Amino acid sequence: MNVRDFYFDLPQELIAQDPLEDRSASRLLVLDKHTGEMEHRHFRDILNYLKKGDCLVINDTKVIPARLFGVKEGTQAKIEILLLKRRENDIWETLVKPGKKAKVGTVISFGDGLLTGTVIDVVEEGNRLIQFSYEGIFEEILDQLGQMPLPPYITHQLQDKNRYQTVYAKNEGSAAAPTAGLHFTKDLLKEIQEKGVEIAHVTLHVGLGTFRPVKVDEIEAHHMHSEFYIVEEEEAKKVNDAKRNGGRIVCVGTTSCRTVESASTDDGILKAGSGWTEIFIYPGYRFKILDCLITNFHLPESTLIMLVSALAGRDHVLHAYEEAVREKYRFFSFGDAMFLTDRKN
Question: Which CATH number fits domain 67-145: 2.40.10.240, 3.30.200.20, 3.30.830.10, 1.20.1250.20?
């Protein structure tokens, strides 16, 4: 299967640069995954499509302010780093710009010395391992010095850091937000629960590989980035009980989908545990847990549009994307949403 099979033409002006004031006011394109039929709604209408007995799976990861700006000790050259994943204690794998200024042994100072980092190794794809030194609590210093790592296609400055967090974000560790969850408000989640829908929490710390382009022609040759996930026993039980009782498993976002599909057995039982996943879902994949998906509109030729196509079929998805472009939906992280469902259920 060729990467060009997942191309669509997207006008630049449809890339959302700012979040809406009301999270649930975004638009919602409802797509029947079997027939390709579409409906145009607003996100708060998701309540009408969820049923008693369904289980909504949300990713409660929290984005850390992972972008830091510092200077190289000695030369005072400006260096930007992005924290990708914590390897151990105060050692982080990072993306450094410009990389040529960050050889092993380089010391970088942030916030006039409030935080310093020493490059201790160069690893795959040129990423740097940096060991940090500081006094106090790392997370508090990071909150003081760091900026939210917005995707490269967002050029506007974010006025409120919390708008790049879901309202249920809890476990710190992501370098990017699970953006399908940005549409939910606490009130909407409460209404969903009152309707008899179970809400299960999982955690997957989103890496910057989410935005990494597919650089091979044949998608089967693409290697996915690795991300850390956690499924607690109580949350796995919610999913398994709903499935056993005939309810649908509705994942909020591709990250929740990848988590439950990674942690499940071939016969569709979600197992509690934690680990690293490199699961790559594209057309031909057979879903073990997920029935329906709430997701944003994704980049052309990305692994995310391939995942969505695995659920609803490439032709249905690309046709829906063409419709979204015609109707001027807002795309990507701060954009509008899709609900891939089966309206016969």
Answer: 2.40.10.240
Interatomic CA distance for residues 199 and 101, integer angstroms: 47
The β-bridge relationship of strands 249-252 and 67-72 is unpaired
Tokens of 221: 């040759």
Q: Where are the domains of the chain?
A: 3-63+160-341, 67-145
In which residue are the tokens 């609590």 written?
137
Q: Mean pLDDT, to the nearest integer, of 99-103? A: 89
pLDDT, residue 223, reads 86
Residues 6+ positions from 206 with CB-CB distance below 8 Å: 59, 61, 63, 174, 175, 176, 177, 178, 227, 255
Query: Where do the H-state alpha helices sit in the chain?
Result: 46-49, 138-145, 186-194, 233-244, 253-262, 303-312, 314-326
> Residue 300 and residue 296: Cα distance in Å, rounded?
13
In terms of Cβ atoms closer than 10 Å to its own Cβ (0-12, 13-18, 19+), residue 305 is buried
Do β-strands 198-204 and 55-59 pair in parallel, antiparallel, or remain unpaired? parallel
Is residue 148 within 8 Å of 112, Cβ to Cβ? Answer: no
CA atoms within 13 A on the CB side of 211: 16
Q: Both tokens of residue 207?
A: 């890496």
In the three-class reduction of DSSP (H, G, I as helix; E, B as strand; rest coil), residue 330 is classed as coil
Residue 324 has pLDDT above 80, yes or no: yes
Amino acid 157: pLDDT: 84
